[in-house]
User: Which sequence fits this backbone?
């Protein structure tokens, strides 16, 4: 199959692209450095020419609802329209479990962006060819947060009740989904696959475990951002479709040598 991975240099996208290539697919690795800008639309039509599947693994680094909504809505419209014009058979949008729930995203701008992304895909892509793959938070998110919000020896991580998964495991589910024909949906229905990790915990606990293993950063502070639903379990799926195998302990053991703050 010819599969376009948009955001192929990212934490998830790089793993998805590698897996799909290992499985013998023709993979187009799309990101700005490769000449594809999903926000302006530059390079999308060429990347999608003759493609069977498009996987959206894009992200933007912002907490601003305005910026997140603008980025995810615009890129989803551009990708969805280009995929439709190129008669791509399956569009897989990677999203976040419950990010489209107003109780969860009310005070979390990035999640409002993800809700706008899902809605934008539903607007422009035939539901028969669209799958939203909603993942829980990844262990790597704690690393990303510690890398982004650090001052000297102190890092700040949001308090989030979650059921985290290893990005590597989620990438496998994304690759499986991309290479499986989409199951039929009812009229106007939405195909959504929810992916969760093996156990519920707080992202702050993940960050502390990573920092303790690596000896850096020295102090981790929990921030009460994003509203009570984020801290109180609103991000935890009730009945996930897929439960990934890697536990925090196994993931830590596998990533023992990674530098602090590096999720790749
Ligand atoms: N982190 C988590 O715990 C988590 C959990 C569930 C779901 N997700 C979702 O998983 C997805 C991937 O997240 P991630 O952390 O892997 O992202 P990431 O590491 O930040 O990578 C983002 C990717 O998007 C590309 N990109 C950004 N702007 C672009 C543009 N205008 N045109 C083309 N490419 C562009 C980047 O490449 P260039 O900068 O080179 O263009 C990069 O390849 C996101 O949708 C996120 O919401 C994340």
Assistant:
């Amino acid at each position: 199959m010819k599969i376009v991975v948009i955001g192929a240099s990212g934490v998830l996208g790089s793993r998805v692209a590698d897996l799909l290539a290992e499985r013998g697919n023709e993979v187009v690795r799309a990101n700005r450095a490769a000449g594809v800008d999903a926000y302006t639309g530059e390079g999308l039509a060429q990347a999608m020419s003759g493609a069977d599947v498009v996987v959206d693994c894009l992200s933007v680094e912002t907490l601003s609802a305005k910026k997140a909504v603008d980025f995810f809505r615009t890129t989803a419209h551009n990708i969805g329209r280009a995929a439709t014009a190129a008669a791509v058979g399956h569009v897989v949008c990677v999203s976040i479990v419950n990010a489209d729930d107003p109780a969860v995203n009310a005070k979390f701008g990035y999640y409002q962006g993800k809700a706008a992304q899902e809605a934008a895909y539903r607007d422009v892509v035939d539901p028969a060819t669209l799958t939203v793959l909603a993942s829980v938070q990844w262990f790597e998110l704690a690393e990303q947060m510690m890398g982004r919000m650090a001052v000297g020896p102190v890092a700040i991580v949001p308090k989030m009740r979650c059921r985290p998964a290893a990005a590597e495991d989620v990438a496998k589910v994304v690759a499986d989904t991309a290479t499986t024909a989409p199951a039929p949906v009812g009229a106007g229905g939405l195909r959504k696959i929810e992916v969760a990790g093996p156990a519920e915990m707080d992202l702050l606990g993940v960050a502390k475990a990573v920092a303790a293993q690596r000896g850096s950063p020295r102090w981790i502070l929990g921030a009460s951002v994003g509203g009570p639903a984020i801290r109180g379990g609103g991000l935890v799926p009730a009945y996930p479709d897929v439960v990934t195998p890697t536990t925090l302990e196994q993931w830590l053991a596998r990533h023992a040598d990674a530098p602090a703050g590096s999720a790749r």
Notes: The longest strand covers residues 90-96. The chain has one domain: 2-254.
